[in-house]
Amino acid sequence: MSTCNAYGACEAHADLTPMRIERRALRADDVAIVIDYCGICHSDAHAVHNDWGSTVYPCVPGHEIVGRVSAVGPRVTRFKPGDRVAVGCLVDSCQTCPSCEDGQQQNCTQGPTATYNGRDRHTRETTLGGYSESIVVREEFVLRVPAALDMRYAGPLLCAGITVWTPLRRYGVGAGSRVAVVGLGGLGHMAVKLAVALGAQVTVITTSASKADDARALGASDVLLSKDPKAMQAAASRFDFILDTIPTKHNVNPYLMLLGRNGVLVLVGALEPLEAVHGALLVMNNRSITGSLIGGLPATQELLDFCAEHNVLPDCEIVDVHGINAAFRRMQANDVKYRFVIDMASLRDVKVD
Amino acid sequence: MSTCNAYGACEAHADLTPMRIERRALRADDVAIVIDYCGICHSDAHAVHNDWGSTVYPCVPGHEIVGRVSAVGPRVTRFKPGDRVAVGCLVDSCQTCPSCEDGQQQNCTQGPTATYNGRDRHTRETTLGGYSESIVVREEFVLRVPAALDMRYAGPLLCAGITVWTPLRRYGVGAGSRVAVVGLGGLGHMAVKLAVALGAQVTVITTSASKADDARALGASDVLLSKDPKAMQAAASRFDFILDTIPTKHNVNPYLMLLGRNGVLVLVGALEPLEAVHGALLVMNNRSITGSLIGGLPATQELLDFCAEHNVLPDCEIVDVHGINAAFRRMQANDVKYRFVIDMASLRDVKVD
C-alpha cells in the first residue's frame, strides 16, 4: 500500500478538494504508474455530481491518464520502469467472456471495472481515478504511448478519442467515405481529425454558423447548418456515416434524412430516450441507428499508434491542479476548445492536511 | 393494347368491384402474363383506402402475382410463352443508379415504378396491379417460378416473403444465429419459416399466449410473451437478430434489451414514428435499429429458388375473386393464417358491364 495526493469530491456538487488516497500494493501482474497528465472528461463532472445515481464518495475522477511506469509486479512482461504509458476508462474485466476474448472489454458481459467509481474485482473497493499522482493498474489494461506522441496531449485520446475511433473503424470509414459529424465539442473535434486522417471527406453539422471556421481548421471540407432547412434538404442522402455526439435528448430524424443507402448514424453521446425516430426513415435506404461505447484495449492501442504515426492530437488547454474546479465550470459551459488536460506535476507539491 | 377483367376500387373505402382495364401493347422488352394467382397484401388495403394520401383511382391492387407467359416482345430473351413466372412489387426502375446496379431496385434513386399506383416510365399512366386477368411487364422485372414451387402458394413470397428475406440475408442469418421474430402475421410467419430453413434458432415474441402452438408449428423453438416482464428480463441480450413486424407505432426498447453485442433489430412494418428509443440501449452492446424495404430482383429470384429447394411455402387461404371484399375485411381484422391468395381463374368468367 502507498499513499499519494489526489483531487476528489467528498459529496455531490461540491468542489473537488486535495486529499490523500491509498494505492494498493503491487499484485504480481500490476504496473505502478506516476501520472504526468490526466484529461478532464464530461463524465467526470457527471460522476462528481452523481448525475447517474451511482457515485461512491469520496470520488476521484479521471480516466484519461498518461504517465510513466514506476514499478512492475513480478509477472509483468510488457512494461519496465520508465516506460511511457496510458490508462483509459477501464482497469479490469473478466477476460474470459466472448466480448473480452474479442478485445471488446468495454462490453464485458460481467461488467468491466471502471477506472474510477468502479469496484476492484479482488478487494471490492471503489476504484479511484487519475486526478492523482499515481495509480496501480493490471498490466493488460495499460497502454503504450509511442515515442512520437506528445504526452501532454495523449490523454483525451483515451476516452474522447477512442469513443469516436471505435465506430469509425467498425464501419470502415476511409478514403471515399462521406462522413458527417454532428456537434463540435470534445468528441466531435476528435472525430473530424480522425476521419480526415483516415481519408474521409468530412462535413460538420452544427447549429452555430460561428463554428464553421473552427470546423474547417480541424480539416472538415464542409459545414452544414442544421437550422437551415434548405441546406439540410439539399444534403438529403449525402452521407455514408454520421457520428452524432449530441449528449442530450434530441431529434435524430433530420440527420437520418442525410444518410444514403445502408448509411449508419452512430450515437456516442445521448444515453437517454431520443425524440421519436421515424420508422420510414429507417426502412427507406436501409438506414441504421446504432450506438457505441468507448472501445477495447486493442483498439485503444491502435488509436495511440495511429495518432503517433499521423500526428493527430486533440486540441487541449493544459491547466494545473489548482485550476480543476474552474476548468470543470468552463467545461460545463462549453467554454473550452476542446478538452482540458491537467498537468499532474503540479499536484506533487500540494500539502494535504 | 388489350383489355381484361380486373377487380379494383373506384374511390377510397369503397368495396372493390369488377371492371375492365386496358393493358399496353407489348414493347420490345415486355412480357405478357396470364395471371393465375395473386396474393392479398396489407398494403393493398392501405392503397384502396388512400391511407397514404397518394392513391389514384380507379386503383387495381395486387403485387404478389403468379402466372404464365402468354407472349413476349422481340427483344425478350429469358422467357417464352408457357413459362411459369411471377411479378412482385416493382415493374420498372431507372436501371442505371448505384442501387439498381447493385440489384437493389427497391431503392432506385429515381424511385422505382410500383406494380400498382405507380407511374409508367414511358407513358406516365398509373400502373394497375395483379387483381386482374393479365399484366404486361418489362422482362427485367419478371421472375421465374421454379418447377418445384407450388404456384398457388408462391404469391406471398413476392412481398411478405422478400420483405423478411432481404434482412435475413443482409445480416447473414444462418446456422447458429439466435433470431427472434416479433409479431406472427403474414410477415412474421414467413420470417419464422425462412429463418428456420436457413438454420437459425428462432423465438417468436408475441403478446398472445394463444399463438404459442402456432409459432411452434411454424418451426419456432421458443415463444416469448412480451407482456411477461420476468420472461423478458430473463431473455436480456439473448438474440443476434430481431425482426420486428409490428405495423404501427410501438415501443422497441423492450426488444432492444433482448439483443446481445452487435445485435440488430430490423423494422419491416412500422412506417411511422416509434416511441422514444433509449440511446443507452443502443450504446450498450453496440445494438442497432435498422429498417428494410421489400427487396431487389436478384434477391427475390434467390428467395423463389430457395423456397423451391427447401419446400418453404407461406400458409395461405385461397379465395376466388368474388371473395375479395370479404377477404379484405378479414385481413384487416387479423383473421387469416396467414395470407390470402386470390385464384384468378375465377375472374375469367366474370361479366363486366
From TrEMBL, chains A, B:
Residue ranges occupied by any Enoyl reductase (ER) domain in the UniProt entry: 11-342
Keywords: Metal-binding, Oxidoreductase, Zinc
GO molecular-function terms, A-Z: alcohol dehydrogenase (NADP+) activity; zinc ion binding
Pfam family, one: ADH_zinc_N
Organism superkingdom: Bacteria
Cofactor(s) this protein requires: Zn(2+)
PROSITE patterns documented for this protein: ADH_ZINC
Family membership: Belongs to the zinc-containing alcohol dehydrogenase family.
PANTHER family: ALDEHYDE REDUCTASE
Protein name: NAD(P)-dependent alcohol dehydrogenase
Organism: Paraburkholderia silviterrae
